[in-house]
Design brief:
The protein is of the alpha+beta class and about 425 residues long. The chain is built from ten helices and 15 strands. It has three domains: about 35 residues, no CATH class; about 260 residues, L-amino peptidase D-ALA esterase/amidase (4-Layer Sandwich); about 100 residues, Ubiquitin-like (UB roll) (Roll), CATH 3.10.20.340. Helix 2 links the parallel strand 5 and strand 6. The longest helix is centred in the C-terminal third of the chain and has 23 residues.
Length: about 425
């Protein structure tokens, strides 16, 4: 629930209905208010469509192999908007921050951007002043090829930490990367950002804002070193909505808090995490400047896209065989609920039990009890499991101590995870 508005999903082919109300969930579209103060329900159709990050009007993308990855797989991607965008970003809280994130934060200070360049295979982290120079030069060379300001180009990297970025390969490939930009280039971009990922991850929806069709398209990468805040992942969201910089920043922060900050695979916080959103206003709607109905419709759709991408990151977790939903309900405070859910989700004992299809409730009790919260004891705690022999399982911890709930998504810990990370270099 956001700002008093509800999101209700109704299955109907590839469409989703957003039900917006200021009170309670109705059973039918035509249900009348029960009280004088309850407002009538308003409906907006959210369609799940194809197209990814280039589906919104005015966006193009490209991807290619420039030689950073020895495998010959795509390793360089570019997003471009035909017009300057209102932009916002959320970054890792790790104190060891990769060079490209330092540059991107500086370029985002004015709340504007027009292009994003990404490389995989090298994190450009812990690379000193040379790393910062390479990150800046990457934005500069792309800006020159596109004919835009260097400060309107963001940059990020993903891959191995501590190795010098082979910038000359990026510089050499820049012209081809720009020339290959297209409305159908989202798939090549998505391939270029992958590392140990097994699948590409994208989500695209269409909504109506102030009578205008608005599209939100997103993609993400992430498989290991996944833990808040945010997770080892890169997320890119493009939209053609017209919105103020302040509200776009708030909308992204809220969506990330409910999605990418609610996932964990191995409890390890990355140095390169970043989620960005570009909004170029090409939809032609009246600019959203206040938190009214239009903002809430956009916010709920953005939440939906981000949560879908976040779940796909967990599902693609390194060596994962299970998708685990951890619920903590009726805790005294929101912090208690969140911390306990994270404790369970990050417990190697719980995760290995899930891998072995072993619903060992003692390991769950140990995980929440380790936080030292006074009311967390056998008198007040109930633990429930869904069948552990399924691919998607849930663990619910109940307290009856308050009204606060939290949900976190994780995966199991398998032999394959150990093998992948033992050999990663």
């Amino acid at each position: 629930m956001v700002g008093g508005w509800w999101l209700m999903v109704v299955g109907c082919w590839k469409k989703q209905r957003i039900l917006i109300t200021t009170n309670q969930k109705p059973k039918t579209k035509n249900q009348k208010p029960k009280t004088k103060n309850q407002k009538l329900y308003e409906w907006s159709i959210m369609k799940i469509i194809n197209g990814g990050i280039t589906k919104p009007q005015g966006f193009k993308a490209s991807g290619l192999c420039c030689g950073i990855r020895k495998s010959g797989k795509f390793d360089l991607g570019l997003i471009f908007s035909e017009v300057p965008c209102v932009a916002a970003g959320v970054f890792t809280k790790n104190s060891v921050v990769a060079a490209p994130l330092v540059i991107s934060k500086k370029h985002l200070k004015n709340g504007k951007a027009q292009a994003m360049i990404v490389n995989s295979g090298n994190a450009n982290c812990y690379t000193g002043e040379l790393g910062l120079l390479h990150a800046y030069l990457t934005t500069e060379v792309i800006a020159k090829k596109l004919g835009i300001l260097t400060t309107d180009v963001l940059v990020t990297s993903t891959g191995i930490i501590g190795k010098t970025l082979p910038y000359e390969k990026i510089e050499k490939a820049a012209e081809e990367l720009v020339n290959s930009l297209s409305k159908t280039g989202s798939s090549n971009f998505e391939k270029a950002i992958l590392t140990t990922d097994l699948i590409v991850k994208e989500k695209t929806v269409e909504i109506t804002v102030a009578g205008k069709k608005v599209v939100i398209g997103g993609c993400a990468k992430g498989s290991g070193m996944i833990a808040p805040n945010m997770a080892t992942m890169l997320g890119f969201v493009n939209t053609d909505v017209a919105i103020s910089p302040k509200l776009l920043k708030e909308a992204l922060a809220y969506a990330v808090e409910l999605s990418f900050n609610r996932i964990t695979v191995d409890g390890c916080m990355s140095t390169n995490d970043m989620v960005t959103i570009f909004a170029n206003g090409k939809a032609g709607n009246k600019v959203i400047t206040t938190k009214g109905k239009d903002f809430e419709v956009f916010q709920e759709a953005l939440n939906f896209v981000c949560l879908d991408l976040a779940k796909k990151v967990v599902m693609d977790g390194e060596g994962a065989t299970k998708f685990i939903t951890v619920n903590v309900v009726w805790a005294k405070t929101q912090k208690h609920a969140h911390d306990m859910a994270m404790a369970v989700a990050n417990s190697n004992l719980v995760k290995t039990a899930a891998f072995g299809c072993n619903p060992n409730w003692g390991r769950v009790a140990q995980a929440v009890g380790s936080l030292g919260i006074p009311y967390v004891n056998e008198k007040h705690m109930e633990i429930e499991f869904s069948p552990f022999d399924k691919k998607e399982i849930s663990i619910t911890v109940k307290f009856n101590q308050g009204k606060h709930n939290a949900t976190v998504y994780t995966s199991d810990l398998s032999n394959e995870y150990v093998r992948i990370n033992a050999e990663y270099n």
